[in-house]
Amino acid sequence: MLITPASMLNTNVLMLNKHYAAIRIIPARRAFSLLYRQIAEVVSVENDQYLSYDFDSWREVSEFRSRYQRDGHEWIRCVRFEIAVPWIVRLLFYDRLPRQRVRFNRRNIYARDRNRCQYCGRRFDSSELSLDHVTPRSLGGKATWENVVCCCVACNVRKGGRTPKHAGMKLIVTPVKPKRSPVIQVQLTGEKYASWKQFLNAAYWNVELKE
Questions:
Q1: What pLDDT sits at residue 9?
Q2: With a cut of 70, which residues of the chain have pLDDT below it?
Q3: CATH top-level class for 106-167?
Q4: What pLDDT score was predicted for residue 201?
Q5: What is the reported pLDDT for 21?
């Protein structure tokens, strides 16, 4: 029985296929389910080596770390024991790297444009940005990656229902469809994310964050 806040069970865990290729980022809840059912194992970075643990051995390691290395880990508390949230798990049987489309949604558009208005170039909080159709819908513009950009309120009002050319404005970057999920382009910091980096090279970086 788990007695841990739900937020801790949603902690990000990197999932690899059996050939150590990154395939997606999953919540800790799913990672523990895979471990307990012996579908996956923990991959842990220790002294520049990658060691593997099944559920029982990871529980033993967690018991030691809870006493001597508690800082730097996130913990799931059960009735009879605590267990550290792993940073990386590897599927024992799955060897394919699935094709994943980049979802066309507000979250990914903001991430692609890095929360920057594509007309004035200033960065804003998400709550202060809107989405603009470069070619307005009234002029036949479509809701596509190439025609939707982040825009601040002031620039949106200035542009109105016109094209940038007719409004005397210019895009700072030509919008394109990302080849991979733009959310994962955020800077990875901390020991946890540093342990992910060697798995996240250009060849395998098709990981899509959980919704």
A1: 77
A2: 1-7, 69-70, 72, 95-101, 180-193, 198, 200-211
A3: mainly alpha
A4: 53
A5: 81
Half-sphere exposure of 208 (CA within 13 A, CB side): 16
Residues 70-98 pLDDT 10s = 676 788 887 778 888 998 999 998 766 55
Give the span between the Cα atoms of 79 and 41, in whole angstroms. Answer: 23
Q: Are 146 and 109 in contact (CB under 8 A)?
A: no
Backbone phi, psi, residue 107, to 5°: -60, -45
Residues 48-71 as b/e (b if ≥16 CB within 10 A, e otherwise) read eeeeebebeebbebbeebeeeeee
Q: What angle (nearest 5°) sits at the alpha carbon of residue 91, between those of residues 87 and 96?
A: 120
Cα–Cα separations (whole angstroms), residue 165 to 138, 159, 160, 161: 16, 9, 12, 12
- 188-193, Cβ contacts within 8 angstroms, sequence gap of 24 or more: 191/72, 192/87
**According to CATH, where is 1.10.30.50 located in the chain?**
106-167
The radius of gyration of the chain from alpha carbons, rounded to an integer in Å, stands at 22
> Residue 168 and residue 24: Cα distance in Å, rounded?
42
Q: Are 54 and 38 in contact (CB under 8 A)?
A: yes
Residue 116's DSSP bridge partners are 123
